[in-house]
TrEMBL record:
Residues 33-43 have a biased composition (Low complexity). This is Tripartite ATP-independent transporter solute receptor, DctP family. GO terms for biological process: transmembrane transport. Keywords: Receptor, Signal. PANTHER family: C4-DICARBOXYLATE-BINDING PROTEIN (PTHR33376:SF3), PTHR33376. The keyword Signal applies. Residues 23-43 are annotated as: Disordered. InterPro entries: DctP_fam, TRAP_DctP, TRAP_DctP_sf. Pfam families: DctP. One of its GO terms (cellular component) is outer membrane-bounded periplasmic space. Coiled coil: none annotated.
Length: 345
């Protein structure tokens, strides 16, 4: 009996080994997280990052730095592929893919992420910040750290860094916009998030949801009267070809984060997780500094193309949007908290 048991046990082990039942080395390739060759080399991973802006945008330049440094520091075992111009989909679509477990990431602004964590949307509130330094104080605070943890644990969204400053949002149109009254009856494209919609409507316009890739044709064909966006995106999309005026209302400071799926991130070795986090923060800082350094250059280029730059008095716009925070539960209190962080940290 003992001899028979030994024979059966040996046969069972051989069967399991032949079927691969004793190893999980091949599972990564099937779910898109990575693969491992038969020679026992380190497992490899791929991250696809899709963004709505063009290759000429500072955000793309920052992502190129991220790609280069991550691939170098992981000896090529973590490959980063970049997809500009909405070629991987619009931001919310990519976020949904990340949540479902795909090896994808994107640059998402706080308002879009508020679909999963309502409080974070306040970061895109009108006239909340005056500069990048104030933004950094808040995104480096304990308040933001709590939001980040909740997004990972409750929504499977991992923020790698949230220091990608895309610039101040302004109005692009074929009508001169100098006061909120000038926006009456105007259909403006804005990001499809509640706080953007409330802000634009408080300023006097009709907020219209439209993918960024469709804005050029939308203005050209009269589907919309204009849009609101930052310098780099406006120039990158060549909107100076279809719009005559660029009114610097500075109504929102667009701050975004490099976001991936939390499950995918957790599948990386700890060493790779540290590299990805460090390089995401460094690349975000680089991209943000590029945005700030190139602001006047973008204006000059758009003026050279025939666009008129308007610098209106922003006080009436600030006054018009004061009530936006009251439209969201808890936002007035959060605004006070953020003001305290800015003033004291």
């Amino acid at each position: 009996m003992k001899q028979l048991f030994s024979i059966l046990t040996t046969a069972s082990l051989l069967f399991l080994a032949a079927c691969g039942g004793g190893s999980s080395s091949g599972s990564g390739e099937e779910n898109g997280e990575g693969s491992q060759d038969s020679g026992g080399s380190e497992e490899s991973y791929t991250l696809q990052i899709g963004i709505v802006v063009s290759e000429n945008d500072p955000m793309y330049e920052g992502l190129e730095q991220f790609k280069s440094n991550v691939e170098e520091k992981t000896d090529g075992n973590l490959t980063v592929e970049l997809f500009p111009n909405s070629s991987l989909g619009d931001t919310p679509e990519i976020q949904e893919q990340a949540i479902s477990g795909a090896n994808v990431g994107t640059l998402a602004d706080a308002a879009i992420m508020s679909d999963y964590k309502q409080e974070i949307g306040i970061l895109q509130g009108p006239y909340l910040f005056e500069n990048y330094e104030q933004i950094q104080k808040v995104t480096n605070s304990d308040l933001f750290a709590g939001w980040k943890e909740d997004l990972a644990s409750e929504n499977n969204l991992q923020i790698l860094s949230f220091n990608w400053f895309q610039g101040s949002r302004h109005i692009i149109s074929n009508n001169e916009i100098r006061t909120p009254e000038d926006l009456n009856g105007q259909n403006l494209r804005t990001i499809g998030a509640d706080i953007f919609t409330e802000t634009i409507e408080a300023m006097g316009a009709n907020a219209t949801g439209l993918d960024w890739a469709e804005v050029y044709s939308g203005i050209q064909q009269g589907v919309i009267d204009g849009a609101e966006a930052q310098h780099s995106a406006t120039h990158g999309a060549s909107l100076y070809e279809v719009a005559d005026y660029y009114s610097k209302t500075n109504h929102i400071q667009l701050i975004t984060g490099l976001v991936v799926g939390a499950d995918w991130f957790s599948s990386l070795p700890e060493e790779y997780q540290n590299i990805v986090n460090e390089e995401a923060k460094a690349a975000g800082q680089y991209a943000s500094e590029t945005v700030m350094d190139s602001s006047s250059e973008y204006e000059s280029m758009m003026e050279d193309e025939g666009m008129t730059i308007i610098e209106p008095d922003t006080a009436p716009f600030k006054e018009a949007t004061k009530g936006v925070y009251e439209e969201f539960e808890g936002y007035p209190e959060l605004r006070d908290q953020i003001t305290e962080i800015i003033e004291n940290e």
